[in-house]
Design brief:
With about 140 residues, the protein is mainly alpha-helical. Helix content is about 50%, strand content about 10%. A hairpin with a 5-residue loop joins strand 2 and strand 3.
């Protein structure tokens, strides 16, 4: 039977304790049945990461998001925005005035993703050359 005991924090760790789910169990992304696994899947999606990264700059219209994320289709942008809105990470608001426009922004919960996503983006941009070399070496060895 799973325990509901909180894990001991590591010395110097800034990581918050795992959440307790409604059934009293702790969140565990390694458990297929845990809803945190679905959330991790959403956050690990490249389009979600890129959309949240663009929204770090402030509210954006749909067209600005589409134009600012090279390669995303309107369908994928729409689907991902809806999913992020459903998860409480993005807010969709209509603007008043001539012609109804929609603006997307990060919610307070969505803003908590700024630092981890910035770290991931920085890591990818910093180490892409090493990864590319490793890929080329792997292909040469396999080839």
């Amino acid at each position: 039977m799973p325990t509901t005991r909180e894990p001991r924090p590591r010395p110097g760790s800034r990581r918050p304790a795992r959440a307790s789910l409604a059934d009293g169990h702790l969140a565990d992304v390694y458990s297929a049945a845990c809803p945190s696994r679905q959330l991790l899947d959403r956050l690990a999606d490249k389009w979600s990461v890129l959309i949240v990264g663009r929204l770090e700059r402030g509210p954006q219209h749909f067209g600005a998001l589409r134009d600012g994320i090279d390669g995303i289709s309107e369908k994928m942008l729409t689907q991902t925005l809806r999913s992020l809105e459903h998860d409480g990470l993005v807010l969709r608001q209509g603007t008043a005035g001539t012609g109804r426009k929609v603006v997307y922004s990060l919610t307070p919960l969505g803003r908590t993703l700024r630092e981890p996503i910035a770290l991931l983006r920085t890591w990818a941009e910093s180490y892409v050359d090493q990864v590319e070399r490793a890929r080329a070496e792997h292909e040469r060895a396999a080839g």
